[in-house]
Every structure is written in C-alpha cells, then in structure tokens.
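Researcher: We're reviewing a set of sequences before deciding which ones to prioritize for further study. For each one, I'd like a predicted 3D structure that I can look through quickly. This is Protein-export membrane protein SecF. If possible, include the structure in token form so it fits the rest of the review sheet.
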Amino acid sequence: MKAWINRFSLTALRQGALNLSVVLVLASVVGLVTKGISFGVDFTGGVVTELATHYPPEQEQMAKQLDLLLVDGYSMSRSGSNHWIIRQGLDISEAVTANWHSQLPDAWQVELLGSSIIGPQVGSELFEMGGLAIFASLLAMMIYLSFRFEWRLALASVIALFHDVLLVLGLFAWLQIEFDLTVMAAVLAVIGYSLNDSIVIGDRIREYLRASSKIELDTQINRALVSTMTRTLVTSGTTLLTVACIWLLAGAPLQAFATALFSGIVIGTFSSVGIGATLPKVLGLQASDYQLIEPTRNGRVG
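Model: Here's the predicted structure for Protein-export membrane protein SecF, in token form for your review sheet.
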C-alpha cells in the first residue's frame, strides 16, 4: 500500500465524499424543482435556421441584428467563424419566419444553408424516446449488477448511477444550459462510464474480502481503492483531456454536450469512491459475506 495514504484519512475522505453526495443530490433536486431543465427545440419544437456569412461579423454584431429581426426570441450558437445556428420557438409570427435572414446586412454576404421546423409532437416523441433509452440503460445495468455482485455492492453501484444522472441534470437546471439530444447522448455515455469505474472498484473489494475475513472492512476497502487509483486517475484524466478539447475547440454546438460529459465523468469518478465503495459498509457489508464455504472431508458443508 502506498505510504502517503493513511488508512484513517482515506476512510474519513470516503465518508466525507458520501456526505457531500447527499448535499449535492439535495441541491440538484432543488434546482430541478425550482428552475427546471431548459429543453432545446429538439424536445419543445421550433425552427432551426443555419446560415453562413462569407464576411463573418462579430458575435455582438450578429446578436444586435437578430434582436431587431427576431422579436419573438431566439437562441444563437456559432461554429467556426462563419457558421451560425439560430433556434426559435414555435410561438413566432409569420412575419418573422418569412425570409428574415435576407434583411441582414448585404456586406456579410449571408447564405441560407438550411431551415427546418420541428413540431411539438415530434419534439415530444424525441423526449419520450430519449427518456426511455435512459430508463432502459439503467434497468439493464441493475439486472447486470444483481447477478455480478452481492446485493450491498450491487445496490451501491446502482445508487451511484442514479446519483450521477441526477447531478448532471441538476447542473443543467441551475446553469440553465440548453438540454438537447446531444446532451441526452452524453448522459447515456456517463451512465456507462460511471458503471465501468464502479465495477472495477467493486471487483477489487470482492477479491480482498474473499482473500481474508480477518482484516478490518475499512482497511480492505481502502486497499481496493489504492490498488485501482492509478487506473482510475489515468483513465479519467485522459478522457477528461479529450472532452476538454471538444469543449474548447469544437464550438458552441457541442459545448452543452461537452459540459455534460465532462461533469459526468468527474461526478462518476467521485461517486465510485463516495458511494460505490463507501455505501456497502453502511448497508451492513461484512467480509464474511464473501467467504466461500468449504466442504468437510465427509462431504458435508462445514
């Protein structure tokens, strides 16, 4: 075991992480109830217009022009220097929808790349299908974990999954970041990533508990965390580096996706320690739960 990790400090760190998780869950619930999620036009329906400007203006200049033309409200994102995506709700007047882009300054040389209308029924169906995908993935993970681990370790991993999803949704509620299909895809990725980390740590805890029932449970859990720490830090670090590049370089259309994925990976790594490795003891896990019963010489179980 690495000398710089003290058994008692690591145990206290795990317990503190569990307590912090409870606080963050409560904060997320408050955010979801009071502020709600800002759904994008993928779910609410609306008009999406894509423009190209051969002479790219500053973002402030474009926003000033759109404020004059799109009086019913809009949201704008920019990809690169000359690609613009403008989203409007369904409650817009015909005067606004009729070739408003042609009224932008001629000097910008605006080109209409495409315009599409998503009806409220289509948006509702997309939301239902996305929610069903998240529910199905969580259900499949629960079934898998129930066969792989003793119920306390399995339940802790399942709670960690729900914790991760709830905290990502709470973050989007508090910051009022637009929640669209790309963000829902990120949430699904977070579920898989979080489960992978929990399984690795859970497997190592099970191995140590099977090896010896005489060592204190906290010591066994801490040994499991230390032995997987390098793997966790390297995996999470490299993944976060990749997502950070998407966040910084891919432009506005993928910023919400990168935000969900980045925060989800951090939260998933945190919950693997604070919930996946700590909660089983709270639920009554003991080393004897993983001890194999050896048959006696006369064939009976002893």
